[in-house]
Sequence to fold (524 residues):
Amino acid sequence: MTGEPYESPLPRAASTPEAAGPDRPGPAPAAAGRPDPGRSAAGQDGRRWLILAVIGAAQLMVVLDATIVNIALPSAQRALGFSATDRQWVITAYALAFGGLLLVGGRLSDLLGRKRMFIAGLAGFAVASAAGGLAPDFAVLVIARAVQGTFGALLAPSALALLTTTFTEARERGKALGIFTAIAGGGGAIGLLLGGVLTQYLSWRWCLYVNIIFAAAALAGAIALIPGHRPSRGAAVDVPGTFLAAGGLVAIVYGLSEASVRGWGGALTIGLLAGGVALLALFVLVERRAAHPLLPLAVVTDRIRGASYLGAAVGGIGIIGTFLLLTFYFQAVLGFSPVLAGAAFLPFIAGVIAGSSVVSNVALSRLGPKVIVPGGLLLAAAGTAWLTRIGPAGNYGLDVAPALVLIGVGASCAVVTAFTFGPAGARPSDTGVAAALVNSSNQIGGSIGAALLNTIAASAAAAYVASHPAAPGPAAATVHGAVTAFTVLAALFAAGAVSTGLLHPRRAVVSARSAQRPAASIRP
Fold:
């Protein structure tokens, strides 16, 4: 990371040519009294809040789809007749395509236009969802999930980039980002709740059909409300970088998913992870020399942006890991129905909404990311440690609900900061890829969380059974595995708090830089 801290995007922006630097050109047209072509005209009237509703609906669709199928898996398995070993691919196919192609989607939104990619992503996601809902067999379902992830990777980066260009006034942008982050953070829990309702009262297929409703509403709003974006000129698609980044990320996510089945010492797991790391190392070398890089390295070497991506990754590990472990605990140990298991995550949603609102509207501008992010991750660590109290006859109200509130508040501190600072200071041609890195970090983190914590829980449960042959049923082993995984997760949250605390610069430095260069906000 570079030692030069990036200035806070939170103070009110003022377009002054003095703020320009060799890497961050100032908005000369606006300074001369002419409209800034990079700024959305919608940000000047009431349409911007309608645009936020459109973007929010699209983001909710993408995020909840990472979890909505989880609760429906047993019903889908019975209907299509696939094995318990194969069923992981219904989840993994989506994560592979989404996490692996987000970076490419971000660059395409810059090169081809954010509105175009947003609309293309919505349309493609709807078609893939319909195909998945109609799937006659397992293969078609997995392919449809992969196509969903591919179009989600086009949609997600353009959604965040459109938000930052629609809301150009700092205070309103903070409110909009708070709403957006609450949707992004709570969407996974909403997916679990909605998946339970649809599966129990309609059919597992409606967990896919419901996306058509979201996509149709967002598509109509996008066509009517979102103004066109002038694509970047003089740039080209970095084909070698695209293949190396996509291949490396897909290999890593695939390797992590295989770890839960074959173990961390499996030849395929090690080969995929090593190959993915090698491809990403080669990607960095290629990007240093590329005329039009897929990922300008300055996007990630900036201290605040880099710390933001790390915070998003740690938040993803914790959120998806917690969902995975508790979903199984609720249904297999406590005997909750699909609807009740989904409803059990409502305290998490409440924590995310509360944390996002406070952070985006009050705390972040006053305390800065160096306090907010580590403090939030420590709260999440405390909530995760609380979950080690669960037992075969656990008390949900005392052992689970308070912990979910703490994790929701804490994780939202890291995620809202990532959405605020992740695209901050990126040049107009790099806004999409900088925004994509926020989602990609969160998604890759979620994949790490699912693979790592599932492997730890399964191994600990197996060891418990081996050492307790007279145990009264599988519930005790399941709980032991979950408690072991939650202990590791608490340590990961704490490590994330220390790391982001060291990376983020002191708030006094950020504030001083902002005062000297008031135009240094998120530039569209």
In short: DSSP finds 19 helices and no strands in the chain. The first helix runs from residue 28 to 31. Confidence is low (pLDDT under 50) at residues 2-44, 508-524.
